[in-house]
Amino acid sequence: MRYKWPKAQQSAAVLSFDFDAESGFLFREPEKAKRSLADLEERRFGPRVGVDRILRLLDRLKLKASFFIPGWTVENHLAPCTRIRDAGHEIGAHGNVHEAVGMLDEAQEKSVMQRQLKILKDHLGVKPAGYRSPSWDVNVWTPALLKTHGFLYDSSLMGNDVPYDVPTPAGPLTEVPVQWIMDDAPLFRHVYGATNAIADPARVFQLWSSEFTGMHKENGCFVLTCHPFVSGRASRIQLIEDLVRFTRKQRGVWFTTCEEVARWHEKGRRS
Ligand SMILES: [Zn+2]
What we know:
By secondary structure, this protein is an alpha/beta fold. 46% of the residues lie in helices and 13% in strands. The radius of gyration is 18 Å and the shape is globular. Zinc ion binds next to loops.
């Protein structure tokens, strides 16, 4: 059966941004992070330049997006986080110091979850509806933990390309699914020794626009995931703008946020 979207729209499209800044590097390589200014500065491009470029782009396009922000980023780069909030975009949780939860046990994950919620509340006054796990790493117990901490949805899993239910003992948790094809990091980040090179934006446009066209035919939920320190670069901002203009040529696309998608799904489940 085909997924049904509001107002007889054919598909949904969401721009999402994971505002990691230095947090993922601090968690994964704490020793190197004490000395490598080069690695830190690469990531500081996000709060220093990328976020504001993205905010200007969203303003030009008159779009609201979903930003997932680790607690560490909120505490250490409060000004750009405040600008995201004040521009009316959705803010979701994204770990505390971008912890890959596969490296945590359940008790550690619970305390990380409580800490990130407190930081979002204390510094931004935000109670997030959504959670995106750092590195899209999810444990079998994570959905129940999200449900008991009052989250409406998760956006870290790849089990479908329309919203779906992840069962938990406390009832179903809505999943707004992601996928690797539509993540900027594997395509654009330079990593020594990795098999992937820095992709030509024209090739990525081809990939993402083809995926969008296919998803639109399949009544799918197209969720693009970008990082300000990766996609805040000039040619990639242009790429996102070109992609949105391309998707707007199709009729019946609901441009929205992860939260609105999750609310729609929740409503459908109740009716
Ligand atoms: Zn992240």
